[in-house]
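Repro:
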Amino acid sequence: MRFAATLRYLLAGASLMLGLASAPSAAADTLTPLTPAVPMPAFKLPGLNGANYSDADLRNKVTVIRFWASW
């Protein structure tokens, strides 16, 4: 009985998500084109090992900058 109820909820949720995904968006008429990309501003950040990293060191490399905040 519990499995059937869980399956019913999963199927209902999936069908709802599929229905929403296929619905036309009202905002589609108001889309604006993206502006051209601008270069990243120059920066210098300390690493965990104490070394400093700048944008010049990372140029032409795939880079992920992860900012962590806890407040």
